[in-house]
Write a structure and sequence with these properties.
Layout: H1 4-21, E1 35-40, E2 43-46, H2 68-76, E3 79-82, E4 85-96, E5 99-102, E6 105-108, E7 121-128, H3 132-136, H4 138-155, E8 159-160, H5 171-177, E9 189-198, H6 204-220, E10 230-233, H7 248-257, E11 261-263, H8 270-277, E12 282-286, H9 292-297, E13 303-308, H10 317-323, E14 327-332, E15 334-336, E16 339-341, H11 344-354
Parallel strand pairs: 7-8, 7-9, 10-11, 10-12, 12-13, 13-14
Antiparallel strand pairs: 1-4, 2-3, 4-5, 4-9, 5-6, 15-16
Helix pairs in contact: 4-6
Amino acid sequence: MFDLNYYKRLFSYLMRMVRKVLRFDLPSIERSASEYIILCAAEEGVQQPAVTVKGQLTKATGNYFGDLSTYIEYATSLTAKHAATEVYRIENVTYDNGYLYKGFIAEHVSSLGLPSHGVAHQVESMLLCSTPSGSRYFGDWLVADNCRELLAREMNIEPLKIRPHTQYIHLPELNKILGLRETYNEGTIFIKNLYVTNDQGYNANKRARCNELRSNLRKNIVNDGKHNQMIYIGRGSSYSSGRGLINEAEVIEYLSSIGFLIIDPTQTSAIEILEKTINCSVVVGIEGSQLAYGFLALKEGGLMLTLQPPYHFQSAFRPRCDAVGVRWGFVVGVEQTGGFDIDVKDVADVLQSWK
């Protein structure tokens, strides 16, 4: 039987791939919104200063995603502009295998493959809880995507929860620990009213949801009073990227000597990591998604200290930390063949000055 809707989705999918290769603008389904809602207004506020020592920013040379000066300003500004939480209602959208289809628009969420055959299941309303960045980066999944699921709960709308194409080994555990839905939507779904959010700003509503994630964790992880106060979370023995810390062994040796617990997240379950880190005072690690455990576990007033490759200075965790009353800081390394190294004295000075 000829399935016109399937071939329409397939054409839209292939056209999106062509436009991407040719670097043409990719149309967004938000342009087709029937309704626009400001759920929480934009805000301006203040931020606590980053915890660091003199001379660090002079070593920063770049960022993978854009202009370095933007990320430096984001890391150092004492004022904050928090964007509004916006909701778009879009009628008659089809979800299929990681993509949203509206007319001849195919919008990517997760790289799960080509459109699939089959009769679409019809749903009245859903709120999209997944993002392309959350499908690629664990830290964005843990904070950005899961905060959207809490928003769906707040608005009493069924969540559209799409499995990330990156295999996060701790995903099933964390959904359970954080009180989130443990299943992901499968098959083809025709959604009469799809709600899509712009949820970048850490306004009052977003801050409340960040704290709700942390509160849900503390309901499900027992704090027996024997938790560790200082934690180093590595990128993992099986992880490879341009953010290789060449002298990580030296850094770990120093941190161990002053009482830090060293955790390899690729060799430890999510529940074990969180049991060991719950309400800790300091989390140190190479800038990256594994520090999302610190976002969850650090006690209010604690410190997340990021070890930064000079060629990828990144400040994404700063507003997240600020939203939940956690301090954020950084030490910038020096580029070496195969990665970068960190001056252990700089780490020691930051930890000493913070105390």
